[in-house]
Specification:
The complex is a heterodimer of chains A (about 500) and B (about 325).
Chain A: H1 4-25, H2 39-42, H3 45-55, H4 64-75, H5 78-83, H6 85-97, H7 110-113, H8 115-128, H9 139-169, H10 188-200, H11 208-212, H12 215-224, E1 229-233, H13 242-246, E2 279-283, H14 298-316, H15 340-346, H16 352-356, E3 362-364, E4 377-379, H17 392-396, H18 407-410, E5 413-420, H19 426-429, H20 436-440, E6 446-448, E7 454-456, H21 466-470, E8 479-489
Antiparallel strand pairs in A: 1-2, 3-4, 5-8, 6-7
Helix pairs in contact in A: 1-6, 3-4, 3-8, 8-12, 8-14, 9-10
Chain B: H1 2-7, H2 11-28, H3 30-38, E1 44-48, H4 52-60, E2 75-79, H5 96-109, E3 113-118, H6 124-130, H7 133-139, E4 143-146, E5 153-157, E6 166-170, H8 171-175, E7 178-181, E8 186-188, E9 192-194, H9 196-199, H10 207-213, H11 215-222, E10 230-235, E11 238-239, E12 250-251, E13 255-259, H12 262-269, H13 288-295, E14 308-312
Parallel strand pairs in B: 1-14, 2-3, 2-7, 3-4, 7-10
Antiparallel strand pairs in B: 1-13, 5-6, 8-9, 10-13, 11-12
The chains are: A mainly alpha (about 500), B alpha/beta (about 325).
Chain lengths: ~500, ~325
């Protein structure tokens, strides 16, 4: 029984990881899954707390996350050891790549262990000041983002590459399977690099990320100090230190293996493999006291808090948005997004909206929205346009940074306004008939004049970008959508209105 | 030896003999002959009044029935118009009832497989679901495909093309035995009208690039690649403003036009629409791509030279 526990745990970890993968793959067109596809993110209390601080109100979708905290009080930090898909990934790579040698001597990590408390306090203060760059360290957001942005496009590439070769072996025309348009994400290399670094830290120490950096783990640590399911060691202990070596998070001090740091324990139950069978877990009264905890001196706490506050101010005051340092008018937010300041402080950059967007229109920012808006979504019409009858990004956003609007409301929302570059437009620049933009426009915002050249009606343009996307001009489009600043609702269209009726030009005054 | 040799029938003799014998034989089989030829009394049939399937039946009969086009076990490709994510009543996409009737007729005639294709302009998933055509096609037993994957295309040279020299065309269209063009007439600002020939833009990979080349000639050029065996024009309800995407004003014409001549079908359908400036119904010559196609010898633009028949369905 006791020997089966590590296998059980590994199986559950793998299942949890593949369930996340399944949910990500299901974050696509029909979106008819009964369970929310962003389930893991909704269960993340770190996101729950920080969004509560930045937005100053509880987000309904994030409520289940606080339930997880209650479970942690009972079973301790079971999430990290059993369910965290990031933890599962790290465990897997630690196991196959960084096996510790027999004579391995652990170093004293007393000073390193308080690093994550510092990061956590930094995040809290920054969150209070409505700044959230720490989301890049949230493990659930991190693994979702990495899978979507860094690993999904290569997977599609492989599929597209092998599909025609597979079809050679199949009887002709029996099955027509289409290749999938390649999803493009500019920041994928950076995100992949970050992920590799996180995994490579395992060479220093197993689960380096979880022990010393992860802010979600830190939050669980705080709560699991008062855990009810506790570890007990009887007098039979022979000080063989097997449990000390085996513990994946180093929660058992070498000097005193009968004790353990309950806040660091991830309830993996590996220490039950005790030669004299001295270890057992059962329920007991919670206690706050712990052994050899981290030394959070007043100096360290105040330092972290002050550093968080100053950093938040610095980053907020930094004009990285565009070359001029002023407003970036090519930064179009997804339909239904909160106002920019609020949006940036609530968006976790998980990438779910990037995956669900049927046209690959949503892209992750790097510095286009400033450092505070790292990895937030933006609409890049030349890559993909916003589909008229789609509101998926709002429906799956775990923190409601993109509000869930009904389709009728969403399709009348103005995100930006298109402008024509008349020097490059085929119809304006040459005598050819083009008008792709007029043909594709969903809201009759592009009319043609008497020479069949496009003209934009700003009051009808939603900024969906289909014109910019389909423009046949090479390279950059000849019709470009600029953000309208604040998203506003347009008047519903009048079906009897003919978009191609040219308003009568005012009568010219005769020269007298 | 010589004697024996002369008894043998040479290839030339055999062909000569069969050429003489075949008409004689077929005239002795009146049933077989009438099914194959006698009913082909028109090139363009206009059916009015009736439900979608009645209209289709009525329009096909004077052409010689579907049996004239589809032989048993053949593969059929229908190029429908599912380009936009619009509902059927907005008349921007094909009538679902008519598509169902068309697919059923193909299978009843003995088609082995019917595939409905379109390279949509909006995202294909939304087009297929909102137009209701995916459900319709699948219920009728046909496969429905979208041309969003480049592996579905094959690069071909357009030998007769004046402006388009090479283009990527849906492979299934090229490889199919029978190709049915199933357009819906709509107003279109750039080319005045979207008719049967314009519908074939949806078998091309780089659709938008054709606008750069010169749309009217490109439409005519594309139509030289794969001859449309049969045009079934869905004019039950047409879009008269804000085309081709709509939504705009619609008009219930209540007609289904079946033809073997795509230019003639387009020439007829052009008159559904009024010229925006003069208010007079379009003449076929006023639609540049119809004119260009006629010049390329794709069909007859002058309806007086085509055997036209008007029938009532119910």
């Amino acid at each position: 029984m006791k020997k089966a526990i590590p296998y059980l745990r590994r199986t559950i970890q793998a299942l949890s990881f593949f369930f996340l993968l399944y949910l990500i793959l299901k974050t696509a067109f029909p979106l008819e899954l009964k369970i929310p596809v962003d389930l893991y993110l909704r269960l993340d209390p770190f996101i729950g707390i920080i969004t509560f601080l930045t937005k100053k109100e509880v987000i309904l979708r994030m409520l289940p996350a606080f339930g997880v905290l209650l479970v942690v009080i009972i079973f301790g930090n079971f999430f990290c050891g059993w369910f965290c898909p990031m933890g599962a990934t790290i465990d897997f790579f630690d196991r196959i790549l960084f096996r510790e040698k027999k004579g391995f001597k652990s170093f004293n990590d007393q000073s390193l262990r308080r690093l994550r408390y510092g990061i956590f306090m930094f995040s809290l203060v920054a969150g209070l000041m409505a700044f959230q760059v720490m989301y890049i360290l949230d493990p659930i957001s991190l693994i979702t983002r990495t899978l979507i942005i860094a690993f999904y496009p290569p997977a599609i590439f492989v599929f597209n590459h092998f599909l025609p070769q597979m079809q050679h072996f199949l009887p002709q025309n029996s099955l027509i399977a289409s290749t999938i348009p390649m999803p493009l994400f500019k920041v994928n290399l950076l995100i992949f690099l970050f992920f590799v670094i996180v995994l490579a830290l395992g060479v220093i120490r197993k689960r380096f990320w979880c022990r010393y950096l992860c802010p979600l783990g830190t939050l669980f640590s705080f709560v699991s100090r008062v855990r009810i399911l506790k570890r007990f060691v009887t007098e039979d202990c022979t000080h063989c230190l097997k449990c000390v070596k085996d513990c994946p998070v180093g929660a058992i001090p070498e000097t005193n293996p009968q004790e353990y740091r309950q806040q660091d324990c991830v309830s993996c139950f590996k220490c039950l493999e005790c030669p004299p069978e001295a270890v057992s877990f059962h329920f007991g009264l919670p206690r706050w006291r712990t052994v050899s905890g981290v030394n959070l001196s007043r100096r360290y706490v105040l330092g972290s808090l002050a550093f968080g506050a100053v950093s938040a101010l610095m980053i907020k005051a930094n004009p990285l948005q565009s070359e001029s340092g002023l407003k970036n008018n090519r930064l179009i937010r997804p339909p239904g997004s909160l106002p920019e300041e609020e949006f940036v402080s609530v968006c976790t950059g998980c990438g779910e909206c990037l995956k669900v967007c049927p046209n690959n229109a949503l892209q992750s920012t790097l510095l286009e929205a400033g450092l505070a808006g790292l990895y937030t979504p933006r609409l890049v019409p030349r890559i993909g346009y916003c589909e008229e009858f789609c509101n998926f990004c709002g429906r799956i956003c775990p923190t409601e940074a993109i509000r869930p609007l009904p389709i009728e409301e969403k399709r009348l929302l103005q995100m930006g306004i298109a402008h024509i570059d008349k020097t490059r437009c085929i119809a304006w620049d040459t005598e050819k008939i083009c008008l792709v933009c007029n043909e594709q426009c969903s809201s009759q915002a592009i009319i043609g004049d008497d020479k069949k050249r496009p003209i934009i009606k700003e009051e009808k343009c939603t900024g969906c970008g289909i014109c910019e996307n389909k423009c046949p001009v090479d390279g950059e489009s000849a019709i470009i959508v600029y953000a309208s600043g604040v998203q506003k609702k347009l008047k519903p269209e009048d079906l009897n209105n003919n978009k191609n009726e040219v308003p009568p030009s005012p009568p010219r005054k005769e020269k007298s | 030896m010589d004697h024996l040799k002369s008894r043998k029938i040479t290839r030339r003799q055999f062909i000569k003999g069969t050429a003489v014998a075949l008409p004689l034989l077929s005239s002795k089989l009146p049933f077989y002959g009438s099914l194959a030829h006698a009913a082909e009394e028109s090139d363009l049939v206009i059916a009015k009044n009736g439900s979608a399937s009645q209209l289709l039946q009525a329009a096909m009969a004077p052409l010689g029935g579907m049996g004239r086009f589809i032989k048993k076990g053949q593969r059929v490709v229908i190029k429908a118009n599912i380009a936009w994510a619009r509902t059927p009543d907005q008349a921007c996409t094909n009538n679902p009832d008519l598509l169902a009737a068309l697919i059923k007729m193909c299978y009843d005639t003995g088609a082995k497989r019917v595939a409905v294709w379109d390279h949509t302009c909006d995202n294909y998933q939304f087009c297929f679901s909102r137009s209701g055509l995916k459900e319709t096609a699948q219920k009728a037993g046909a496969d429905i495909f979208s041309g969003h994957g480049r592996n579905s295309y094959k690069q071909v040279e357009v030998q007769k093309g004046k402006k388009v020299k090479t283009v990527e065309i849906l492979r299934d269209v090229l490889e199919s035995d029978v190709f049915i063009n199933f357009p819906i007439p709509k107003q279109h600002f750039a080319t005045e009208l979207t008719l049967g020939m314009k519908n074939l833009i949806g078998i091309v990979w780089d659709m938008e690039q054709l606008h750069k080349i010169g749309l009217h000639q490109a439409i005519a050029d594309i139509n030289t690649i794969r001859k449309t065996d049969l045009v079934v024009m869905d004019a039950i309800r047409i879009l008269t403003t804000n085309g081709p995407k709509g939504p705009g004003k619609t008009e219930d014409i209540g007609e289904v036009i079946a033809s073997t001549d795509i230019v003639a079908a387009d020439a007829y359908a052009a008159a559904f629409f009024k010229h925006p400036k003069t208010g007079i119904p379009f003449k076929p010559e006023e639609i540049q791509f119809v004119k260009n196609a006629y010049d390329l010898g794709l069909g007859q633009i002058n309806l007086s030279k085509v055997r036209v028949k008007k029938v009532t369905a119910a």
